[in-house]
Amino acid sequence: MERVELEEILRSAGVAEEHGEGVFLCDVQWSPTQRAEFARITQTAADEPRSERREGWLCVPTGGSGGGMRFARHDERTLGAAVAGFCAHTGVGRVNAIGVLPLHHVSGLMAAVRCRATGGHHLPWSWPQLAVGEVPALAAGDWFLSLVPTQLQRLLDAPKTVDWLRRFHTIFIGGGPAWPVLMERAAEAKLPLAFSYGLTETAAMVTAQGAGDFAGGDCSSGRPLPHAGVEVVDEASGQPAPAGATGIVRITGESVFRGYYPGHGAGRSFTTGDLGRFDASGALHIFGRRDAVIITGGKKVHPAAVELALRATGLFPDVAVIGLPDAEWGEVVVACYPADGEGTRRLPDLPELAAYQRPKRLLAVADWPRNAQGKVNRPALRAAVSALAGPRG
């Protein structure tokens, strides 16, 4: 794909602004505060030396788990490498996709880019429409859809939507771990799921399950795609971790971004901050963000493991686990769920978790913060819960 083609996609979607020699993707629903931050970030773009804009001219917003606004710098070559890897993995030469995410989000962007680069059809569709069962017709060909687990949960509740989902070549699931009950329901529905892993910094997915993996009981994020090098490294040394050990995921390859804006350039290697390990078959398992780990009484708690146990109870419409400051324990494990008018819930017994992993508090949050992909906005949730919970100790 040439730069002019990529710019045409962005212009037609109305999500791009030019500042200096860079093109910045924007969310039309940003708040006044976010727009002000965006203006502050981009005001110096015109003054940057031309040499820094030969690569990485496309700036894709990525807040990261720590919040704040910054942009991952991509271009037609990084995105083209990701498209080539996707096609090689799926064995499909012409990609058709339903886009339920806006193009300022990397998953929405890559759905459109894959289709344009391969001559396929890209059909933007509103997630609220899809969530209530309003599904578009699928023309002949191989169709793809990308969802996060909470979106899949919504769609499984409508028989008409389930029938529609069965028509896809592959439905990629990313953005967080799926819980056992959800996976069992999807397997019973015989959906063509493939779990995957990727980031804005890597032009979306770098690992994915293959055909039949999910149906065969695989619960991993799949194996590396042909264009990506994926390894797990020791957190302290940065050296490759022993086989089967948990460490930090590091990604190399042509789809890796050119660096952050504002910030410095990058090579073809990116250490993610995500915790993961490879199993004996070479499949990657992701355990969440390193900076999301809760230290309580000197012990590490991975929120993803606690969330899976809570989701498996079927008691919560959604759930997120965070750590709040505590005078006695350093941090205390707190489970949060969106208030839905069905009364106050109680913490269930979670015998599969160690005592230190079990939440000490359960809080209903009236205004449940989500991002465009349907994932919980953890910085916003932590701020809301801190105000709701009050001081401890």
Task: Walk me through this protein's architecture.
With 393 residues, the protein is an alpha/beta fold. It has two domains: 73-255 and 265-288, Rossmann fold (3-Layer(aba) Sandwich); 293-389, 2-Layer Sandwich (GMP Synthetase, Chain A, domain 3). The chain is 25% helix and 26% strand. It has ten helices and 21 strands. It has helices at 3-13, 32-42, 76-90, 106-118, 127-131, 149-155, 159-165, 180-188, 303-312, 378-389, and strands spanning 16-19, 22-25, 58-61, 71-74, 96-99, 122-124, 143-147, 170-173, 193-199, 204-208, 223-224, 228-233, 247-253, 260-261, 269-278, 284-289, 294-296, 299-301, 320-326, 330-338, 361-365. The strands form five sheets. It has a seven-stranded mixed beta sheet with strand order 6-5-7-8-9-10-11. Strands 1-2-3-4-14 form a five-stranded mixed beta sheet. α3 packs across α4. The longest helix is centred in the first third of the chain and has 15 residues, at 76-90. It is globular. 38% of the residues are buried.
Question: Which keywords apply here?
Answer:
alpha/beta, 393 residues, Rossmann fold, 21 strands, GMP Synthetase, Chain A, domain 3, 5-stranded mixed sheet
Class computed from helices, strands and strand pairing: alpha/beta
Query: What is the class of the largest domain in the CATH system?
Result: Alpha Beta
Uncertain runs with pLDDT below 50, 5 residues or more?
none
What do we call the CATH topology of the largest domain?
A: Rossmann fold
CATH homologous superfamily (4th level) name of the largest domain: ANL, N-terminal domain
Give the spatial strand order of the biggest sheet.
6-5-7-8-9-10-11
Question: How many angstroms separate the termini?
Answer: 58 Å
Biggest β-sheet strands, sense, barrel: 7 strands, mixed
